[in-house]
Amino acid sequence: MGAQVWPAAGVVLVTVVTLAAGSLGLRRARTTGDFYVASRAVTPRWNAAAVSGEYLSAASFLGIAGLVLTYGFDMLWYPVGYTAGYLVLLALVAAPLRRSGAYTLPDFAQLRLGSVAVRRTASLLVVLIGWLYLVPQLQGASLTLSAQVGAPRWAGGLLVCAVVLVAVAAGGMRSITFAQAVQYWIKLTALLVPAAVLTAVWRARGDRLPAASGGWLHPLGSGLDHPLYATLSLIIAICLGTMGLPHVLVRFYTNPDGRDTRRTALIVIGLLSVFYQLPTLFGVFGHRYLPELASRRSADATVLLLPERMLSGLPGQVLGGLVTAGAFAAFLSTASGLTVSVAGVLSQDLSPTARHRHERIRRFRASAVAAVGVPYLLSLSGLRISVAATVGLAFALAACTFCPLLVLGIWWRGLTDVGALAGLTTGGLLAGAAVLTTLLLSPRGGWPGALLAQPAAWIVPLTFGVMILGSLATRSRVPGDVGRVLLRLHAPEAMSRDLPSLDRSAR
Amino acid sequence: MSERTRITHPRTTAARHGPARPPVREIDELTALGELYLESLMRSQRRTAFGMCAVTIGLLLGLALAVAGIAGWRAVTVFGVQLPWILVGCAIYPALGGLGYLAVRLLERNERAFAELMHQR
Questions:
Q1: Do B60 and A265 touch (CB under 8 A)?
Q2: Does the beta-carbon distance from A487 to B28 stay under 8 Å?
Q3: CB contact at 8 A, A31 and A39
């Protein structure tokens, strides 16, 4: 029983800190602008910590270490891709998207193409990607609570849902900015301190690193089918998928202008680079001290179990409590960010005519319940795929749909609504089918299995092709004022002050 | 009685009305000249942005192929850790940060050049 006190204390502490940070924002969230985008006044440094806090999910905190433990070297590409995605986002979309003044991806689609059909399709995709991303967070929470304090399998996910709903519904975006920034530092501390202690323990024992057992130590030695294709396709999915994650994009709207969004993205790369040194270390130690997890298919618990395996007695328990707290910070921060963006899209597109402020906020709160409720039910259905692999599929879906829409929408004046719709439908249906097949039917070997488990390498070029050809075939539908829209996306801040704002509501 | 004709130098009115209208408005009103300016801004930004992406993704894909293909790297160790683990686990992150810094610098330089061009008009 004594061993369960520290993890339980960690969960309670993180929950209280999250709610307290949320209530700090509550007193200040007075207008709808505060509620949705923190009135667009967050500095790059705060926002970068908030973006990182929101982005480091169950997949980063638990999943990577588990994958490294099980499959070895090839899994190092997950954290590299998670970081490089921000570089692609910085170069291609950060500043233009912020300058467009749109709040969500559907807003951008409508602003750029003036088409309600494209908007609705984009909304549907935001909800699907959000749900796909939320399921592993709730799965991870249930796993953590049952592994660390012996709670039933439904309890962890339900706790995360409840805390997220209270924090999100009460304070909206501003409270979340502060809570998310704090959670980055909680997560970093929760891995850094145990990593330092465990490294010292390992050195004191004079222990050796894992010997080359099979191909674990070597590139392409994961034992999976077609490892080279899987690695290359994974890199493409994560690099291009980051820009299409709804919860990440919403965060960038809280910066005052386009210049600051680039600086924010740059600081995010730094913060992620520091964090991602640590899960690998846990995976390597896990391979040495917890080898049985790989065969039991419960490698996601590596980070949680390692401290007590390597250190007996009180120190191991305290460190176990610390990593549990960090894991909960990861679930809470990512889940609340996803809930805000999914709920934002649901409430905007379900109630476009809500005029009164109170009515809009009430509908936002109702949408938040739907935003976490559905993935919670899915997480109970017992998917057996690892949390990092599920999150990888969410990235692939984003890369196959929103990446072409954003890149062509920002950089090519020839994009039309018909072309965009054709591309989103093609990419969404193909990637969605690949994701469902991988999740529901157990993954099969050979080329079909590899192509479905890592679909980005063939669907992303296909979606680009469909969008470009569809747009060229309907050239007469290029919006007449495309130049004015593109000017607002690309004009530097000093000049855009002289521009009258475009009224898109009439279109 | 014939109508009175007022004769002025054309530059006088030009000088009076010119500065009141920011040059960026010309682009916004979609004059032919404005379209040309917008296209030049987008061309320089597009070259930088897509160039940086190509370098980033090329670096990752190239490194993935290199560590898979060059078996000799496995014999090289740094503090007892094989070279591929060092490269993909640690060394690549500062490179990504450096590329990000470069991207911000280049994109902002293009924007400053464009703002100066507009200002000179």
A1: no
A2: yes
A3: yes
Q: Say if residues A176 and A36 touch (Cβ distance below 8 Å).
A: no
Asked if A305 and A293 touch (Cβ cutoff 8 Å), the reply is yes
Q: How far apart are CA A163 and CA A173, in angstroms?
A: 15
Residue A239 contacts residue A460 (beta carbons within 8 Å): no
Q: Give the max Cα distance, chain B.
A: 105
Q: State pLDDT tens for residues B35-88.
A: 788 888 899 999 999 999 999 999 999 999 998 888 777 777 777 778 888 889
Q: Mind spelling out the 3-state secondary structure of A350-367?
A: HCCCCCCHHHHHHHHHHH
Residues in chain A: 507
> Residue A341 in contact with residue A187, Cβ under 8 Å?
no
Is A33 within a domain? Answer: yes
ipTM (interface predicted TM): 0.88
Tell me if B57 and A239 make a contact (CB, 8 A cut-off): yes
Instruction: Show the DSSP H helices in A153-257 as ranges.
Output: 155-204, 227-241, 246-252
Question: Is residue A414 domain-resident?
Answer: no
Q: Quick check: is B72 in a domain?
A: yes
Residue B27 burial by Cβ neighbours in a 10 Å radius (0-12, 13-18, 19+) = buried
**Structural domain of A334:** 2-203+217-384
Task: Point out the residue among B50, B84, B104 whose CB comes nearest to the CB of A73.
Answer: B84
Cα three-residue angle A290-A292-A294, rounded to 5 degrees? 95
Q: What pLDDT digit, counting tens, does each position of A464-492 carry?
A: 999 999 999 999 999 888 888 898 899 88
Q: Does the residue A392 lie in any domain?
A: no
Residue A24 CB coordination number (10 Å): 14
Residues A267, A249: Cα–Cα separation, whole Å:
16
Residue (of A391, A387, A436, A395) closest to A143 by Cα position: A387
Alpha carbons A350 and A348: distance in angstroms, whole number: 6
CATH at A377: 1.20.1730.10
Which B residues, 59 through 118, put their C-beta within 8 Å of a C-beta on chain A? 60-61, 64-65, 67-68, 74, 80-82, 84-85, 88-90, 92-94, 96-97, 99-101, 103-104, 107-108, 111-112, 114-115, 118
Domains: count for chain A: 1
| Cβ atoms A11, A323 nearer than 8 A | no
Residue where the block lists tokens 């910085």 = A90
Instruction: Report the distance separating Cα B19 and Cα B121, nearest Å.
Output: 9
Q: Give me the number of domains chain B comprises.
A: 1
The answer to whether position A486 is within a domain reads no
Highest averaged pLDDT of the listed ranges A71-85, A235-249, A264-278, A372-386: A264-278
Give the sign of the dihedral formed by CA B65, CA A273, CA A19, CA A304. Answer: positive
Range of the domain at B25: 21-120
CB contact under 8 A, A239 and B64: no
- Nearest chain A alpha carbon to B53: A88
Q: Indicate the range of A132-136, A346-350, B16-20 predicted with least confidence.
A: B16-20
**Residue A416 has which token pair?**
């039309």
Three-state DSSP at B81 gives strand
Q: How far is A5 from chain B (nearest CA, A)?
A: 34
B5 occurs within a structural domain: no
Does B92 fall in a domain?
yes
Measure CA A276 to chain center: 15
In a domain, B96, yes or no: yes
